[in-house]
Design goal:
The complex is a heterodimer of chains A (about 260) and B (about 290).
Chain A (H helix, E strand, L loop, with lengths): L1 H24 L17 H8 L1 H34 L2 H12 L6 H15 L5 H24 L4 H9 L4 H30 L2 H6 L6 H11 L3 H38 L1
Chain B lengths: L3 H31 L3 E3 L2 E3 L5 H7 L2 H35 L3 H12 L2 H12 L4 H8 L14 H25 L3 H9 L4 H30 L2 H6 L7 H12 L2 H28 L17
Antiparallel strand pairs in B: 1-2
Keywords (chain A): Cell membrane, Membrane, Transmembrane, Transmembrane helix, Transport
Pfam families (chain A): BPD_transp_1 (PF00528)
Protein name (chain A): ABC transporter permease
Chain lengths: ~260, ~290
């Protein structure tokens, strides 16, 4: 038992150490990435905020992440509600179609989409990047929803209908509150996934530069502590997104429960 | 005649299904068609030839990098599985630590490129690991071999794919009740016996799934080997990516992508067969459907 605990903590240390070190050295006063730590400074962060190319890449990434999350939410909500109404075969279609894309390497999806866009004469742009990203985020939403929906009791909807609620009322007051927390936290996760996606993007981005692509071009040029600062900021963003996703999930569920006990 | 509910279901599913058909199924099929075309003087010509496939399969370079990708994939997936099991076990059966769970989620969501960059700086000649080892007097000169080696690639890939594998295995273990272990322990099974004779047989399909998913994702990951592997870092993925980005021979790249896909499938069925043959995996009925012995 004690051995297990030691092993687990060692593995967790392995997972966290590189991230902690990146954060630590983003505050280093000199460009050296070695100990001893010679001093604390904000200089790399100051540089980050004056880099206009970086700013443009960041805006581009945020734009893409927003549209990806929105499209994922719309398509995913439809598919989830459909899943509840369909029987075995219909569900199987949604599951197989929806889950296969994440079991394939991003490379495969990337080149396949590139070929499609070339064949249809669609020029690569922000739009093609969003299309590609949804291919990764929609399956994740569907997987998470499936786990949630198997617990969904369709008799709740029937009960509402029996008690005289219209179809729209049933949807708004019964179905939606039950599935909304998962949908919203998945949409927020989609935001984070899109923000970080690199391999797929590199095939379907024309002249657009997203944040990961900018980091990539920096990495290839030099080892600069600037990357530490950007990484730390990106990490902060991911943590923020995770926290928001968790809080929203809990809040909405709590609200839904409270609402039900009240009326 | 469909019921109203079902008809509504079909309508609601249409956008997502249509999306996936147009942007996932169609491109996949198109890529397959492309793999039989030819590229003449940088122009892609519809054709029906097998030369892309035959050419790849008889090219020593292709075979070498594919073997490299499979080796990297299998070894990384094995290490990932071995490391993920204790963590998942701990999270499910010992302490449901929220802190550890969040730490795993954070690493999972920390940027892919950043983690590659982190290991590159850690393993470099002026990197942290070399500096520490020199200061401790373990080595006199920085070890150059840390970076740009199979070791660097493996450690980074493990770091990237471990969190996801842990989460997959946590969900597998969650379906196996604590009571089963308790019962086995009460009957005198040791701690490890409890794992190998109670949990492992029930979780084997989930574990195999986690292994295979890690394998497929790692074998297709060409960025990490490219950045950290040096001369040993060329994999099929990089070859394919270069066909599409540099060389411009898309049909050949398409054929290579499908060969890689077939190799992944072959490895998957090979593993499945191996598990069946050795008796590690048996077809089981789900726990809840098994009737109690009377």
């Amino acid at each position: 038992m004690i051995l297990l605990r030691i092993v687990v903590f060692a593995i967790m240390a392995f997972l966290l150490a590189p991230i902690v070190i990146i954060i630590l050295f983003s505050f280093h006063a000199t460009p050296a990435l070695t100990f001893p730590f010679t001093g604390f400074s904000w200089r790399w962060y100051a540089q980050v905020f004056t880099d206009s190319q970086l700013g443009a890449a960041l805006v581009e990434s945020m734009k893409i992440a927003f549209w990806t999350a929105l499209l994922t939410l719309v398509l995913g909500t439809g598919a989830s509600l459909a899943w509840l109404r369909l029987k075995r075969r219909g569900r199987a279609v949604i599951e197989i179609l929806g889950i296969t894309p994440i079991a394939l390497p991003g490379l495969f999806l990337g080149v396949a989409l590139l070929v499609l866009f070339a064949q249809l004469g669609i020029s690569l742009s922000t739009v093609t990047i969003v299309i590609a990203h949804v291919l990764l985020t929609l399956p994740i939403l569907l997987v998470a929803m499936k786990a949630r929906l198997t617990l969904f009791d369709p008799s709740l909807e029937e009960a509402a209908r029996d008690l005289g609620a219209s179809q729209r009322q049933t949807f708004a007051r019964v179905t939606l509150p039950l599935i909304a927390p998962t949908l919203i936290s998945c949409a927020i996760l989609a935001l984070a996934i899109s923000f970080d996606e690199f391999v797929l993007t590199s095939f379907v981005a024309g002249t657009e530069t997203t944040l990961p692509m900018y980091i990539w071009s920096m990495m290839r040029r030099t080892v600069t502590p600037l990357i530490n600062a950007i990484s730390t900021l990106a990490l902060l963003f991911s943590i923020l997104v995770l926290v928001v996703a968790a809080v929203v999930g809990r809040m909405r569920r709590a609200a839904a429960v409270a609402d039900r006990t009240k009326s | 005649m469909l019921s109203a509910g079902k008809r509504m279901g079909v309508v609601l599913a249409t956008p997502a299904v249509f999306y996936l058909l147009v942007f996932f199924v169609a491109p996949g099929l198109l890529l397959f068609v492309y793999s039989f075309w030819t590229s003449v003087a940088f122009r892609i010509v519809p054709d029906f030839v097998l030369s892309n496939y035959i050419g790849s399969l008889t090219s020593p370079l292709f075979l070498r990098v594919t073997l490299n990708a499979i080796t990297i994939g299998l070894s990384t997936a094995a290490i990932v599985l071995v490391l993920a099991i204790p963590v998942a076990y701990y999270l499910v059966y010992v302490a449901k630590s929220k802190l550890i769970l969040y730490a795993i989620l954070i690493t999972w969501f920390s940027s892919y490129l950043v983690r590659i960059y982190a290991w590159r700086t850690l393993l470099g000649t002026n990197g942290l690991i070399n500096t520490v080892l020199i200061n401790l007097g373990v080595i006199d000169e920085p070890v150059k071999a840390f970076l740009f080696s199979a070791f660097a690639v493996a450690i980074t890939l493990v770091h990237i794919y471990l969190p996801f594998a842990i989460l997959l295995i946590v969900s597998t273990f969650s379906e196996i009740k604590q009571d089963l272990i308790d019962a086995a322990r009460d009957l005198g099974t040791s701690f490890l016996g409890g794992f190998f004779r109670v949990i492992a047989p029930n979780a084997v399909n989930g574990l195999l799934g986690a292994f295979m998913l890690t394998f497929i994702l790692v074998a297709g990951d060409y960025v990490t080997p490219q950045m950290l592997g040096g001369a040993s870092g060329q994999t099929t993925g990089l070859l394919i990516a270069d066909q599409f980005r540099k060389t411009g021979n898309w049909p050949l790249g398409a054929a290579e992508a499908f060969l890689m896909f077939l190799v992944s499938l072959a490895v998957y069925f090979g593993m499945l067969w191996l598990c069946r043959m050795t008796g590690i995996s048996v077809k089981r009925r789900p726990l809840e459907k098994r009737r109690a012995v009377r």
